[in-house]
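Appendix B. Chain record.
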Amino acid sequence: MIEEDVMYDEQETTETRFVGILGQVGRYDLAITKSAHFFGKSLVTNLTTGRSGVLDRTDCESSELLMHVFHVSAEEAKELCIILPDRV
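Structure tokens predicted for this chain:
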């Protein structure tokens, strides 16, 4: 028998917003999921690359953070800084 230490196992209803935007530098297909599990932050997933991060409005205003989370160029991160803050 396998012994396991379950840290959490919860189920909840979430709200997901799908956003597709063609910017000047790139195309962004995003899923933004709001959940109580993330303490006021949203799970933002780039549907093209599969990369995701748990972000709030302040996080989305940092192009350096977005570059790191989504592995995008500085120009793409600046576009995401325009797209994301009002949507998370």
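Further analysis of this model is presented in Appendix C.
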